[in-house]
Amino acid sequence: MDHPDFPYPETDYQEDNRGQFHFSSRGGWMNDVNAPLYYRGVYHLYYQHNPHGLAWDTMHWGHATSPDLVHWQQQPIALDPAAHPGDLWSGGGVVDLGNVTGLKEGDDEPIVVYSGTNGVTVFYSLDGGNTFRSFDNGRKVVKPTAETSRDPKVFWDPDSRRWGMVVWSDQGGNGVDFFTSVDLLDWTFASRYEADWLFECPDLVRMPIADAFAWVLSAGSGKYVVGDFDGTTFSTSSPAPQKINQIDTYAGSDYYAALTFANLPTDRVVSMAWQGGNKGSSWTGNATVPVEQRLQSTPSGPRVLCTPVPEIASLRTATQSWDNLTLDSAAAQRLLAAITADTYEIEAVIDIQQATRLGFRLRTGPDGRSAREVAYDASANELDGATLIPHDGRIALRLLVDRGQLEVFGNDGEVYQSHNVNFDSLPGGHGVELFTNGRLHLESLRLHHLSSIWTG
């Protein structure tokens, strides 16, 4: 179906509360991330989308592209219920580099995406992921036996040299069904993994750890387990789930329905999620900053750690630095008194051995109020409620502060939290404050001012 014009209002992306380095749809409703993938130098982000209103309604697939995972450009709608059959709900996608589907017609490799409820439908693109055709008139290529199923995600298993698909279904309770294929079109049921926590938007991704690999199975909430996938069956010796993002996560929360990118040019794992709390006059919802994920061994078992993609550094326009300072409460409060900042990044390494509570107050105003506080409780070893154990008496904090979003990282990804915060709610408040109860030693502090991805 042709879309000669975007069905969106004109915008300069400067509306109150609009994130300046978090992607949001030019207009309309946005929810789950769908089929994030890389193809020939371009990152593609598809997403659940109602282009005609600010609330959830008949689902389309919105589309945006980026050369660097940071600067995003709105594209026309990719899947439209007026042209593509079925319920166009959440799903994943891959690039068929080997043309195992046999669908290739020109120079571009087929990009194949999967959607649908209570059965999986296939759509494919032969123009680099911009427009899609329905495969076999919308025939459902996978039909889970459960009454309700949705959210297919496809992955490659290099050991079995087959494609796998994980689909959420309610067969006997929450869980996922696994299917396998050699051509991305004909699928065979392989196994089922059940868990009460495993609800909606599953992902299964292979990640390196030490000198081996493990598989991470996650749900829409960001809960996950680490285990093995033998080509047909997922198993784990640690069935109690952990959380990728340490906030209260649910559909519409500040972190939900993350998926990992397919076909990346290196072996890194990159993920984006939906943030449901951001809205304005012409849009609802945004995506998190993409994060790199890695598995790390800990005394409690392997854990997924998350840090912003390094490409975020391309937005830095100016940096202010402080090093090797010992500060009491009054000196900490004075340190950043001259700073005014709109969108920015904070990196700090702090020796906390003489402090009981410390952190940053964001968007402070002349009267001392702040729009948000990020605090570390040294007595409880908690960063905003999430456990963060000091390393040799030090903690590392990293904050990404946007107009409607705040992302918090502790100790190189041991803590990862995403929040929607209306930072424009305090007129004239563009200050930043370091605070401490007790003395702290500031080993290093960097404040990077970040430019908008929508300008230039």
Automatic annotation (TrEMBL):
Keywords noted in UniProt: Glycosidase, Hydrolase
Single GO cellular component term: cytoplasm
Domain Glycosyl hydrolase family 32 C-terminal as annotated: residue spans: 311-448
GO annotation terms (biological process): sucrose catabolic process
Keyword Protein biosynthesis included in the entry's annotation: no
Domain spans labelled Glycosyl hydrolase family 32 N-terminal: 22-295
GO molecular function: sucrose alpha-glucosidase activity
PANTHER family for this protein: EXOINULINASE INUD (AFU_ORTHOLOGUE AFUA_5G00480)
Family: Belongs to the glycosyl hydrolase 32 family.
Protein name as annotated: Levanase/fructan beta-fructosidase
Higher taxonomy: Bacteria, Bacillati, Actinomycetota, Actinomycetes, Propionibacteriales
